[in-house]
Design goal:
The chain is 49% helix and 15% strand. With 828 residues, it is α/β, with parallel strands linked by helices.
Length: 828
């Protein structure tokens, strides 16, 4: 019997929602109202909202299997979708109805929203960008599946104890996850280790068979990703690793209880934790296993979906556009070739053509250490067949390079997929570049630097592959959901179309820039948002922040290239000015930091300790008289960011020029009315062009000036010796003033600045201090500041992830933009 999904009716009235919440509490949670905990109610409400999503999802899946549409497969090691409940209600347009239903049940709406654990599936900007793209693909009706790993434990929860970062296990699944659906029948075996054997097939062709030493099973867990009020839902499919045989009955009967479950324990380790510490060989091995595990499951699933849709292997590039989100999934190039050549029995040339047409590669970094390389011995032990395939790809590729550039062996060496300098490694970025039909950077500057530096050799041999697609962020979560007061004000002036058409509609806001009443309402909203953040800061840290002060915010991953220590030098400089002249006029500021440092990144963790050490002294010095407050906001994540982005006055985007690929925090701050102080790095360049140079506080060396300075022999000590305020700031840190007299604790950080300074902190200090003085002067004139704030919002429509996805569709994926997703010709 065929059931028509259209006949399934789900009501969104408060009465129906109330009824369904109670039913889910009883029948799914097994609780009565008088026994239910807050988490029970959260689960019941979430299941009720998810039911509404499932109708859209099943409709979309039915459409895909019955129409000749192209699909996008997005491969990423990280996703940071943030909490699902509030965003799902917003996208379904049922926020008010749910709130009324909860009022009838005498439940606290905000408490239920806060109850949700944030999915621990990512670390920072890479994962959050991926989540923005998923939101945009659903909102634009781009049929897609996002593939990744269902990490049991996230990167870590961050606590601050005695001023230091302490890592705590992120048990985000401990109370259940109502948003995922286990697809037990969608599972695939993944091989590791062993050896290969050659044979001749029935047609006399040379073939290779991989005999693995171990196998695990990847099981799919699906999460619906709704579009904004468009009855569409795509899915995020995450793979959990399990043992093919989880229990050895013979070992158990022998009394070897540990051995009986050893295979289960080993297999589940693969998807156990996000980014295991790779300071040790075992951590490196596990990361490589993770990457291959999710890629293999993903590609096998792609072929399964091809079969379900009645398509053939030859239809692959027309049916799928597979996007590699950075180098982590780049082993997919070799895995696709293995599946096509060894499993589907295609000849090499046809398989290679299909592979290159299907894959595209996004590079997200200019830091050489982030371009993954795997030791050859480790790679050979784990993936022996893939190493053979990579050797073959390399031989054929370098042969073509030598034909085009005869005699240039240094070029061939740099382009090789195998790095033979100082030990042999497999270069994963090179593999992704060779096996993809498109390579994109994520800001105009980043793409130009890829062409000029990081991937310059690939650009010289295949310039047609390179394209720029500047990153964007979704306005749904970052403004509509997380800044409701500002969203309502904007909508009362220009309507609600900006939520889905940011690039064309938001500019209409510029007409209200000089409207005194509009400016007044704008400032009131900002002050109220700052009061809310101040309340949270007091609760979390015990520090009182003045909402009337300038909220100067730098929240992002803690890393030397992002230069939180440059920000700190400014704080210490202001403090020295007060110590020197207690009556010094200083515009009151609250400096707010947030972010996590990698557990094995000593200097980054030392920066966190110094922030807290400076805060302890400055915040308690009566001489300061509340002119300066320093705050470290602990455990910064998507959930906590709601309070921070909307409250900021000043957005610190101060990375060393030429190091940040794009950044997306810079966009979120500006879309919420913050003014940026920053260098000409990443997307800052384009943002400054968009908002106007007069509405952006620029300082520091350009990327070209950084390269030139280093080439000429950069000497940071020269800046220290020639700038009295810089010297005084560093001397105060070195003296033990912020560390109870301990002169050694921060010496690794100050020594790095004085004798190495890879990220040009010393060179940019004077320019930064002068720029911060300009910030203070402008902030005194609130009319001018509000005008800058409004223009930063009105002119930032280009930086929507909707625009980014439209460009991927047009420039990379060859995906029809008419909303249908239909291919030009039916696939046979």
């Amino acid at each position: 019997m065929e059931y028509k999904l259209a006949s399934i009716q789900i009501e969104n009235t408060p009465e129906a929602l109330q009824r369904d919440i109670i039913e889910n509490l009883y029948f799914l949670q097994g609780r009565t109202a008088n026994l239910a905990t807050l988490n029970d109610w959260y689960m019941a409400v979430s299941y009720t909202v998810r039911d509404r999503l499932m109708k859209n999802w099943t409709d979309a899946m039915t459409y895909l299997t019955s129409n000749y549409t192209k699909m996008v497969g997005y491969l990423s090691a990280e996703y940071l979708p943030g909490p699902h409940l509030a965003s799902s209600m917003m996208n379904l347009g049922i926020e008010d109805a749910v709130q009324e239903a909860l009022d009838r049940l005498l439940l606290d709406y905000r408490a239920l929203i806060n109850q949700e654990e944030e999915p621990g599936l990512g670390n920072g900007g890479l994962g959050r960008l991926a989540a923005c793209f998923l939101d945009s693909m659903s909102s634009l009706k781009v049929s897609s599946i996002a593939y990744g790993i269902r990490y049991e434990f996230g990167i870590f929860d961050q606590r601050i104890e005695n001023g230091e970062q302490v890592e705590v296990t992120d048990k985000w699944l401990r109370f259940g996850n109502p948003w995922e659906i286990q697809q037990a029948e969608i599972s695939f075996k993944v091989k590791f280790g062993g050896h290969t054997e050659t044979y001749t097939d029935d047609e006399g062709r040379y073939r290779v068979k991989w005999i693995p030493a171990q196998e695990v099973r990847g099981v799919a867990y699906d999460t619906p990703i709704p579009g904004y009020k468009n009855d569409t839902a795509n899915l995020m499919r995450l793979w959990k690793s399990e043992a093919c045989e989880s229990f050895d009955f013979n070992e158990f009967n022998k009394g070897n209880y540990d051995l009986a479950v050893a295979q289960k324990t080993w297999a589940e380790t693969i998807s156990k934790v996000l980014y295991p510490n790779d300071a040790w060989e075992t951590g490196k091995k596990l990361r490589l296993m993770q990457q291959y595990f999710f890629v293999s499951c993903t590609l096998q699933d792609n072929f399964r979906i091809l079969r379900v849709r009645g398509m053939t292997v030859q239809d692959l590039p027309e049916a799928w556009a597979l996007q590699l989100n950075d180098t982590h999934p780049s082993i997919a190039i070799a895995e696709m070739m293995r599946l096509l050549v060894d499993e589907k029995m295609l000849d090499w040339d046809e398989a290679w053509q299909l592979t290159c047409k299907t894959f595209a590669y996004t590079n997200h970094t200019l830091l050489p250490e982030a371009l993954e390389r795997w030791p050859l011995t480790m790679f050979a032990a784990l993936l022996p067949r893939h190493l053979e395939i990579i050797y073959e790809i390399n031989d054929r590729f370098l042969s073509s390079v030598r034909q085009e550039h005869p005699g240039d062996e240094t070029l061939a060496s740099r382009l090789s997929l195998i790095d033979e300098s100082g030990g042999k490694f497999v270069r994963m970025a090179n593999l992704a570049a060779v096996g993809s039909h498109a390579i994109n950077g994520v800001s105009k500057l980043h793409t130009e630097l890829l062409k000029k530096d990081v991937l310059a050799d690939f650009y010289s041999v295949a310039p047609e592959k390179f394209v720029n697609i500047t990153n964007g962020v979704t306005p749904r979560r970052w403004v509509r959901l997380y800044n409701p007061a500002l969203s309502e004000l904007i909508s009362t002036r220009i309507g609600e179309d900006w939520i889905t058409n940011l690039e064309t509609e938001l500019k209409k806001l510029e007409a209200f820039t000089n409207d005194p009443l509009f400016q007044k309402k704008w400032r009131e909203i900002k002050i109220n948002n700052k009061k809310s953040l101040a309340d949270r800061i007091l609760k979390l840290t015990g520090t009182r922040a003045n909402p009337e002060s300038l909220f100067d915010v730098q929240v992002k991953r803690i890393h030397e290239y992002k230069r939180q220590h440059l920000n700190l030098l400014h704080i210490v400089t202001l403090y020295n000015r007060i110590r020197k002249n207690p009556q010094a006029e200083i515009v009151p500021r609250t400096f707010i930091f947030g972010g996590k440092a990698a557990p094995n990144y000593h200097l980054a963790k030392l920066i966190i300790k110094l922030i807290n050490a400076v805060a302890e002294v400055v915040n308690n010095d009566p001489l300061v008289a509340d002119r300066i407050k320093v705050v470290f906001y602990p455990d910064y994540n998507v959930k906590n960011s709601e309070w921070v982005y909307r409250a900021a006055n000043l957005s610190e985007q101060i990375s060393a020029a030429g190091k940040e690929a794009s950044g997306t925090g810079n966009m979120k701050f500006s879309l919420n009315g913050a003014v940026t102080i920053g260098t000409l790095d990443g997307a800052n360049v384009e943002m400054r062009e968009a908002v106007g140079a007069e509405n952006f506080f620029l300082f520091g060396l350009t990327a070209d000036e950084v390269y030139r300075s280093k080439a000429e022999g950069y000497e940071p000590m020269m800046y220290y010796e020639s700038n009295d305020e810089l010297k005084a700031a560093i001397d105060l840190i070195q003296s033990g003033y912020f560390s109870g007299g301990d002169t050694q604790i921060f010496s690794p950080l100050t020594d790095s600045l004085l004798h190495n300074d890879s990220f040009m902190v010393m060179a940019d200090y004077a320019s930064y201090i002068a720029c911060q003085q300009r910030v203070s002067e402008v902030f005194k004139d609130q009319t001018s500041w509000m005008k800058m704030s409004i223009l930063n919002v009105a002119r930032l429509g280009y930086f929507s992830s909707d625009r980014s996805i439209r460009e991927y569709c047009k420039l990379v994926w060859d995906y029809p933009l008419d909303g249908s997703g239909k291919l030009d010709e039916p696939i046979n």
